[in-house]
Amino acid sequence: MSREESILARAKQILGVEESQNQLKKNFFSRIAKYHPDKCGSSCSERAKVLIESYNVLTGRAKPLECKLLEDDDLVASLLPKGVKPEKLGVKYEDWLKENFYDFVKPE
To answer: CA–CA separation, 67 vs 59, rounded Å?
Structure first.
């Protein structure tokens, strides 16, 4: 699984959706209401940002590789039900190339 696919999977995991856009919107608004900083204080602001980032990725407003909060395992885990681990992050394509083909393209 590539890094982009794993970030999309994490966003779906956080919002609890598979494919339905109607379910996506409903789940987003119910969860953002729970973690909104106006309701639960500034301690929840990072969680709210992760929810917004997840929603933006799944609606196509942001690219998965531009979302840094979805890469934070602890922050993502705090939004998931107890016992559920965040989707494992994949390898970046550039890192995969370096790891597998660096010997062939090694600069002299």
So the answer is: 13
